[in-house]
Structure formats: C-alpha cells, structure tokens
Amino acid sequence: MYLKEYINKLKTSDFIDEKKWLDQNAILEIISEEIPNAGTEEWKNFKTNSIKETSWKVLLENSIKKDYIKQEQRKLPNSIFFIDGHYSQEASSLKKESSINIFSLSDYINKNPEFKNILFNNPSDYAESRLSGIKDKKPTYFISLNSLLSFGTVIEVEKAKYINETINIIHSFSNIEPEIVINPYIIIVCKEGSKASFQEISHDVGSWNNSLKEIFIRKDSNLTFSSIQERISTGIKTSSINCHIDENAELNLKVLNRERSKEDIRVFLNKENSTANISGIILSNNKDESDVFCKVTHIGRASKSDQNWRLISAKNSKTAINGKICVNKNAKGSDASFYSKSLLLNRKATSFSKPELEILEDDVKCKHGASFGEIDNNSIFYMQSRGIKKKDAIILLIHAFINEIGLDIEDNSELSRNLIDEFFNQINEK
Amino acid sequence: MLEIKNLSVSVQNKIIINSLNLEIERGKKVAIMGPNGSGKSTLSNVIAGKHGYQINNGKIFFNGINILELDPEERAAKGIYLAFQYPVEIPGIANSSFLRTALNSIRKYNGEKDLNTREFLEECKDLSKRLNLDASFLSRDLNTGFSGGEKKKNEIFHMLMMKPKLCILDEIDSGLDIDALKVISDGVSKYSNENNSLLIITHYQRLLDYIKPDEVHIFNEGKIIKSGDYNLVKTLEEKGYQEFV
What we know:
The structure holds two protein chains of two kinds. Chain A folds into two domains: 3-379, no CATH class; 380-430, no CATH class. In chain A, helix 6 packs across helix 7 (113-120) and helix 10 packs across helix 11. In chain A, a hairpin with a 2-residue loop joins strand 2 (79-83) and strand 3. Chain A has twelve helices and 21 strands. Chain A has helices at residues 3-10, 13-17, 24-32, 49-53, 66-72, 105-111, 113-120, 123-126, 145-149, 377-384, 390-403, 413-428, and strands spanning 57-58, 79-83, 86-88, 100-104, 153-157, 167-172, 180-182, 185-190, 195-202, 208-217, 222-229, 236-245, 250-257, 261-269, 275-284, 289-298, 304-313, 318-327, 335-344, 350-359, 365-374. Helices cover 22% and strands 37% of the residues of chain A. Chain B has helices at residues 40-48, 72-77, 95-109, 117-130, 148-162, 178-191, 205-211, 231-239; strands at 2-11, 14-24, 29-33, 54-62, 65-66, 80-83, 90-94, 141-142, 166-170, 197-202, 215-220, 223-228. In chain B, helix 5 (148-162) packs parallel to helix 6. Chain B is globular, with a radius of gyration of 18 Å. Chain B starts with a strand and ends in a 6-residue tail after the last helix. Chain A binds chain B through residues 376-379, 381-390, 392, 396-397, 399-404, and chain B through 48-51, 71-73, 75-77, 81-82, 84, 87-88, 90-93, 98-99, 101-103, 105-106, 109, 141-142, 158, 162.
C-alpha cells in the first residue's frame, strides 16, 4: 500500500478505529503538510528531495514473510526484534526473568489509562514535548508520521529493578524491495528506581527507516540508550527521540549516525535534579548529509545536561549539529553544556555546528563551544615515525577523535570500532 | 650504520642543510650542537622521513640502504627512532595501546608474530618503574596532559621498548629539571651499547655530561663547521658558538 493511500485510509473510520487516540485534525494536517525543505531552519542541512520524489510503500504487519521471522529468530541473545518496523515476539529472545515487559501501545493504555493522558491529552500544549510532534511546529510534522504508520510498542522496565545486561533492540528488514518506508514506534518506560541499558541497532536499510522513540525515565531511575546506525547502502534514516526525565533520574544517550540520516532529539528535564548526558558521532561520506537537531529543555530546578558531539565529514559530504539548550523560568541552579568537534577529511567536506542558548532564568550555568579541524599532519608523522603506516595512523587518529567521548557502547565496543573501519575503507575506495 | 653523503635540503626554496656529510658508526654516540635555526631539527626530521622538505641533493644510507626513498614507517621498521623535541598529544588513545600498535606494526613489517600481551605489559610496567613513571602513565592518553618532563620520559620509554638500532634524540633535554635529566640520561645509558648508535641533538653541555659522546660536531647554517671529541663540548660551553661561527 502506498504511503499516501495509507494516510488517506486513516481518515476512514475502520482504520482510525485502531488508533482512537489519534487526533483527526492531526492526520489532516499531516496529509496537507509538505515535506520540509532547506527553507526551514531545522531541516536546512538535510536534503529531502529523494524523499519527496519517491512513491513510498508501507509494509503492514501481515506482510512480513514468515520465513524471514524464522531466519531472524533468536539470532542474538537478550534482544527485542523489530521486523519491518513491527515488533516480532517470535524473533525476540528476552529472558523471562529480565524484568522487562513488552506491550502494544493500546494494551498498555488499557492497563495504564493515565498513560493516555500523558501521551495524547492537550496535544497543543504538550505537543512539542512529545512527538516533535503531531501538533508540533511545521518543520517537524514529518517525523510524526511514525505515530500514524505504526501502532506502537511499549517496553517497560519494572519498578526498582536493576538490569545489568544490555538489551539489544534490533531492526531488520524482510523486504529488499526499494521504496519501502518502515516506521518503528517504540516507547520505553523506566519505572521508579529502575536501571537499564538498551542498545538499538539498525541493520542495512535499503529504503527509508523513519523511527520514533519516546522515552520516559521515572523518579530515581537511570537509562542508557545507545542508537547505532550500523551500515547504510542507499537508504535514508529519519529518526526522532523524545525523552522525559523525572526527579533524580538520569539519561545517558549515545548516538552513532551515518550518511543520509536526520535525527531529531528532544530532551525534557522535567523535574529537580534530572540529568541528561548526550554524546554522539555523526559521520558522512560522498555527497551525503548527516544531520542532528538536539534540543534540551531544563524545566526542573538543578537539572543538568551535557552534549558532546564528534562529527567526521569525508569527500564532498556534510555533517551538521544544531544543539539547543533552553533553560525555562524556575529552572534555577541548572547546569548545561554543549560541545562539538568536527573533523574534515577533505577540503571539499563541510561541517556545521550551531550551539544555541535560550536562558529565561538567573542563577544558571551554561556553556558551549565548537571546533573544526583537519587531521594533524604532525600527529600522522609522529605515528609513522613509530612504525605505523600512514593509512593505519589516520584510522587510529579517527578512533582517537571518537574515543574522546567514549562512545564504546557497553559490551559492543567492537561494533563501533568495526563501523569506523568500514567507514574509513569506504572513503578510501577509488 | 648511518652515512649522510652530500645532503642538501631546503624548505620553500630556502636552503637549510647544505652539502652535509656525516657518518655514525655502529655503537657510537654522536652529538650535534648548534645555535637556534642552524638546521639541527631539520636534519633529524629528514632522517626520520618527515614530508615537507625538499631534498636537493645527496643520499642517506642506513645499513647500506638509501632511506630517502622509504616512508617514515619503513625507516622505523628498519630501526630508526626519533625522540621528538615536542611530542604530540593525542587524546583518545592510551599510551600502552599506542605503543603496542607501533611495536606490532614493526613486527609485521619484519615478518614477526604479534607481541605476547602479558609479556608486553610486564615489560612496560618494569620499564616505567625504572623511569620513575606512575603506573597510571600507561593507561593515560598519549602525551595528553603530560608535563614537559613526562613527555620526554615517555619518548625514552618508547625508545627502550622499541629497541631501535639508531636513536635520534632531538633536544630531549630541553625544559627538563635536573632530576628528570638524570632519569632520562640513565634511560639512554641503558639503551646504548655496541650494537646501536645515538645521534644526540642538543644546545647544552649538561646532557652530554651524563651521556659522554664519542664525537661532537658543531652545526651552523646547515653544515658541520667543527668536529671533535667530548672536549669540544667544554670549549663550547666556555666560549659559546660565537667562537666558531
């Protein structure tokens, strides 16, 4: 079914029935909205032409090939599988005693009616703080497509449970046809006093992966969420992460994005002593762009945030980070920082960094900085003089550049290392 | 071991080394002294293979091979080591991890197997103790946040681990206090034997008091203007470079 056809069908009652929570106006607005272009500030570093020009197809749950599920079944331990954007219990391999519960969004709302209020009431007031959003400002309408196209999966970490082992969230694709759009919509709820670590890995995307994560970190809980774009061939990634952090709770968000990706991150430090540590690597190659918009809003008193980004642009590509810090009225004692460092591997490569501060309260601490540079020839010579080949020296320096922010992700540092090697091999291809 | 024949080097058309001839025999310690800007560091960089220098004429033979055609890493694999005047800081890579990568690269080049990690770490710990270096020194990022003295000690530490055939010390004594100078001199003395050679580039007598070179050359305007033994250092200290230039 084509994307336009699908969205149009949502207007009919039988389709919307499954999505009672959806605001009819929102659907109409999205249908009438155009895909954003460089004219809008938040999208000016990402070309949307290829999205506009393609007739995208939507993969419905029942179209997933059974053989594929078998093939993927329990390949990785401790994993939650999403195939074509839909949760697959058969392919997942969570331990029974893992203290993690998985629900469809509608089941979760039935079980926790108050959650519906959190997600969907007063959309005009609360919109920007959730979907980036159904009722958000025009530039980000586009990302909220996922909530229309997917029914949503809730991953709940039980109250007061500490989960030591990292849980994998794997996205894979059963259909290799081009022009497929997949729309995983994942909601993570860390209940009071819990601690967990998730690592999201997206396998090769041949088409368009448009994902949405909404993360709720309740009082005294701690979540590490890593999102790794493993490989990319010809596909496009658009992604939105919205995080809501309560009192004494902490988010550690780590992101690794590759070319042809657009990430929209919104973090809300809602209560006193809430903390967000955000670090990310943004890579781009050829003529592509990799763009991140990250906005942290300090609402609670003494809330803390730290953004630390590393960008690497190769060939004629562009990397971009737009890092915004908002300190709201009454968020006294807040402490926020943003820092980005860009590495340009070629004279034609470009990088864009825009730290932005909006401070509406006194007695707060905010700092920001950005730097740009090339690989230092003296460092290469130093390494060569110790016997390391020039190519290996450059790879080592790229690793070192990235290691500064310690993105080695839990037990999977090998994965991020391999990704960098693969990236470097690609840029060296003639 | 090292033979420089009629070497002329320029940078942006300015001649820095002018028809230089120099020979360093196996087991010898040779010092080059000279005023600022005389071309001493250029010489060490050219021997180690740094790009950006224009070789107008001449050859450099290392154990009979003209190394001017080789990349810096190939020269290192053949046994040439340069201890930097200003070692670069590289955040994000641990000192020991860098050193192991370097040693394994050289071993690979020479057709040898990778190092045994346990033996490597034991040797690292033993050596760092001898150089009065804190244990955390191995896990810290390469030269990052190191004091001037620590950086120089690290250069000697790398040298002792890499066991080169020819070691070039480019003003290893600059910015060192007396205690650090003593530690570094002890390290160099441990390295030095009849099978390897040292090229010591310095401004001052004090390092040479510890290392005692076999030959001393005074360098000015890219060439040797006076040669002698250790006694030349004392004369230089008394009369200054002005006497010779």
